[in-house]
Design brief:
Layout lengths: L22 E8 L9 H6 L5 H12 L6 E9 L3 H17 L1 E5 L2 E3 H7 L4 E4 L4 E3 L11 H6 L3 E7 L7 H4 L5 H26 L3 H6 L8 H7 L4 E2 L10 E3 H4 L10 H5 L1 E8 L1 E3 L4 E3 L8 E5 H13 L3 E10 L1 E3 H12 L5 E10 L1 H4 L6 E4 L4 E3 L3 E7 L1 H6 L23 H26 L3 H7 L4 E3 H6 L5 E2 L2 H12 L7 E3 L7 H12 L13 E3 L8
Helix pairs in contact: 2-3, 3-4, 12-13, 16-17
Length: 536
């Protein structure tokens, strides 16, 4: 057996008189996507542990009567702030039952969010320390594209709607800078509250750690940010074992009466919202890369959950900056017409179309670190007139100019621009109406909160755009309450009905291989927030 603990000088045998390990070592590394892939083949090929799997491990450790404590080792931890906050909740639950020690070779903003659920925070003397707050850096391509003969039409509603500005502009405008700074301030406020609660200090003390110029584990200890400076081998005794070595000793959860009462369906909506089927494009380019949530796939999953007789409530997990206005509305319709209660849980993003789909849910749950809002509309197209001239390309037209208005060969005419602006204003009016009806706000108030502006989860809660702060476990609890189910009623991950894994997986691979300049097909009206926002 490979215990992956090179400094343990004993073999598999436990110390005399000890029949079972007293400590378990739990490794945390990677991004921790919320759920396991719903496609069986994709799940088989995935080597990334999900938050769902981690929660199952933690639950088993909580129930191990022979276990004294858990050492949580943070490796290359790359989870987003909202995910780190969810892990914080898991460790806090574990801390109520066991002694939990977090070992942090790298002290940074994200690892500290997650580790703050543990009772003790320990770092080695040589720990890398980067506790300097959050920041965002976005590269604007406007000048770069113009030098190569490419311009970008960018029509938006309204001033905070910045989805296409990095393609059309040379620099960040004042409105975008204002909303991003407010969002970062919200994140730092949430970080301060999390760390203050964990370390038992006032929030202003925790906020002061961001400006304290901490450069070493010893300095972090003296400031009160961590509880101890020690190396890993000083924390692990001979009765310690990694999780893999004790998995057989951990009893699986037993389905009881709760399973007979009914269950909760979990439908994932992850990635840019498009019409058609969901797919993943591995190409790391703006607009093109990453997962895409197809309206056909999400709607089919919602309908399956609505038709399933054992399902009493639905949780729609949204981690999306939106996308197609049409696709967002089709998904919204399935939520709005559901007779079963629908709870929306927001992940890292639930912005623009990602917020649109949530408006008529019975309850909306957001992380304090969620980026949400962006109630606005945008339309645009690349213009290759000068690029074509430089490279000897000469598009020729036959027929009506209006039929070719979305062609990249020329900019909009004034008449065409008015036509597009009229269309996106109609979509904005529909969007704000949906929000007003679903959130029981006036349209005037929604317009004040909208105009394309983003909000942190805490700010969204303060303004009535979401109902409470939490994570997927919170959303599942609310769904069970709304459906009158026991607190331990099971949850299941929904896939579209009658789709076999092999053909569907092959289709996804074929679709991913197709690269287009505009991933939204013929649709030009977007409720989309450009996801090139990564806090550091």
């Amino acid at each position: 057996m490979n215990l992956n603990l090179p400094f343990l000088k004993t073999d598999d045998a436990l110390p005399g008189g000890v029949t079972r390990p007293t400590w378990v070592v739990l490794d945390l590394s990677g991004p921790y996507p919320e759920r396991q892939p719903t496609n069986p083949v994709a799940g088989l090929l995935s080597r990334t542990e999900s938050l769902e799997a981690l929660a199952a491990r933690v639950e088993k450790l909580r129930g191990a009567s022979w276990l004294h404590g858990v050492l949580v080792r943070f490796g290359e931890f790359t989870a987003a702030p909202a995910t780190a906050h969810a892990i914080r909740g898991l460790l806090a639950d574990l801390q109520r039952e066991k002694r939990v020690v977090a070992y942090l070779p790298q002290l940074n903003m994200l690892s500290l969010i997650a580790a703050s659920g543990a009772g003790e925070l320990v770092s080695p003397e040589s720990a890398e320390v980067n506790v300097s707050g959050f920041g965002i850096e976005s590269t604007f391509l406007g000048e770069f594209l113009k030098k190569r003969g490419i311009e970008f039409e960018n029509l938006r509603v309204r001033e905070y709607k910045a989805a296409l500005t990095r393609f059309s502009e040379e620099r960040m405008d004042d409105h975008n800078r204002e909303q991003l700074q407010a969002y970062l301030s919200g994140l730092e406020g949430a970080w301060g509250r999390d760390l203050a609660a964990a370390r038992g200090v006032p929030e202003d003390v925790a906020a002061g750690w961001l400006a304290a110029d901490l450069t070493s584990a010893q300095a972090a200890l003296e400031a009160g940010l961590i509880t101890k400076v020690a190396y890993e081998d000083e924390l692990i005794g001979p009765a310690s074992r990694p999780f893999a070595a004790v998995a057989d000793l951990l009893l699986p959860a037993r389905p009881g009466k709760a399973a007979k009462a009914g269950r909760v369906a979990v439908v994932p909506l992850v990635g840019t919202i498009i019409t058609g089927k969901s797919r993943t494009n591995p190409v790391p380019l703006p607009l093109l890369g990453g997962p895409m949530a197809g309206s056909d796939t999400v709607v089919a999953a919602l309908r399956r959950a609505k038709q399933d007789k054992t399902t009493k409530a639905i949780v729609l997990y949204v981690n999306s900056g939106g996308g197609s206005a049409l696709a967002s509305d089709l998904i919204w319709r399935e939520v709005a017409t559901s007779e079963k209660p629908v709870v929306v849980v927001m992940g890292e993003y639930a912005a623009s179309g990602g917020y649109y789909v949530a408006t008529h849910a019975r309850t909306i749950v957001a992380s304090p670190y969620t980026l949400t809002g962006s109630i606005g509309v945008v339309s645009g197209k690349p213009v290759l007139t000068e690029f074509n001239r430089r490279h000897g390309l000469n598009p020729e037209r036959v027929g009506r100019d209006r039929a070719l208005m979305y062609s990249a060969a020329r900019p909009y005419s004034e008449d065409e621009r008015e036509h597009v602006e009229k269309g996106i204003l109609e979509v904005y009016d529909r969007f704000t109406t949906r929000v007003a009806e679903g959130r029981r706000l006036t349209k005037e108030r929604v317009n004040e909160l909208g105009r394309g502006r983003i909000w942190s989860g805490q700010d969204a809660l303060d303004r009535g755009l979401v109902d409470e702060l939490g994570d997927l476990r919170t959303g599942l609890a609310r769904a069970r309450e709304l459906a009158g189910l026991p607190s331990d009623a099971p949850a299941w991950n929904v896939t579209p009905k009658n789709h076999g894994p092999l053909p569907e997986f092959a289709q996804e691979a074929a679709q991913a291989a197709r690269v287009t300049v505009w991933p939204f097909g013929g649709e030009r009206v977007l409720t989309w927030f450009d996801q090139d926002v990564r806090v550091r």
